[in-house]
Amino acid sequence: MGKMKKGLILSLSVASSILLATGCSSSTSSSESSSKDSKLPAVGATIYKFDDNFMSYVRRAMQDEAKGKINLMLNDSQNDQAKQIEQVDTLIAKGAKSLAINLVDPKSAQTIIDKAKPKDIPVIFFNKEPDASVLKGYDKAYFVGTTSSESGVLQGEMIAKAWEANKDKWDKNHDGKIQYVLLKGEPGHPDAEARTKYAVETVKDKGIGVEELAMDTAMWDATKATEKMDAWVAKYSDKIEFVIANNDGMALGAIASLEKAGYFSGDKFMPVVGVDAIPEALEMIENGKMVGSVLNDAKNQGKATIQLATNAANGKDVLDGTEWKLDDSKAVRVPYKIITKDNLQEGKDAYQ
Ligand code: BGC
Ligand code: CA
Hints:
The protein is an alpha/beta fold. The chain has helices spanning 2-11, 16-23, 53-66, 81-93, 109-116, 132-136, 148-170, 190-205, 222-236, 248-260, 279-286, 298-313, 344-351, and strands at 31-33, 42-47, 71-76, 98-101, 123-126, 141-145, 177-184, 209-217, 242-245, 272-273, 293-295, 331-333, 337-339. Helix 8 links the parallel strand 7 and strand 8.
């Protein structure tokens, strides 16, 4: 820090006072600022927890988009809804002109609106979709995310296609059905609920029989997924024919467990699918340890969130100068896309 300060003073004699003032506080764990110009409009933002693989990519996209346009006050809510509400109070007290909120609990949207609405502060919720009725209750509340069900349908299509092509090898008990285990995201999260439902339904709709051996939440988390998978491998051993994960973090956790059990070496194989297409998963697809993923476009969701929040902070129409559209529930929905070995580059492009 001492050296850095000196460097700044030497190289930026004029603007240094502002930079140093904010630079000194940037080490706090629950708050950081990517755009340090206090003359820019202030936008308050929260991420439900920084320690979420996918959200770390969304966060990076938000910071990139914010540079030079807004003073982004970004908070880590550390998976604690009470903490997030305090952060929102502080952001409003600090003069935030708009809010970009990744809820901890999707059911807490109304509490945030109750704080913002009396002060006429627009709120852009992102990633965790609030109930449509809650968004309707405040004309300056919006959502940036996806159509949750789409990711489930696409994951199901990917499973069905891969199964049809490989069932001679993968249908270990030769009953024509897929014996699967499913790692679910956070219960009550619209993405977790929809992916769980639509992935399996889509496989069935394609005329493929399924049998659920086990299903449980691993809260989007790799370590928790490894623990779950360890237990399932111990209990069902080679009865498991497919691992379906609501996100890549958990798919990667499952793969770690399967590797310990001897999978992915010799002819011991297990098909695993996830959602997000994060770079770590793309690597697994590339080296044959994952069948595929569904691209959850972190870059465009982060970008759209900041674009809407910036417009809102400047008193403009939220879509002004952007490529986005709002649907009838005031939501911007970024499309998903199936990613397999065949189109790996599309996943790589989306995350670079
Ligand atoms: C992503 C998950 C992530 C979650 C956080 C989902 O859209 O697919 O990877 O953990 O959002 O809310
Ligand atoms: Ca079978």
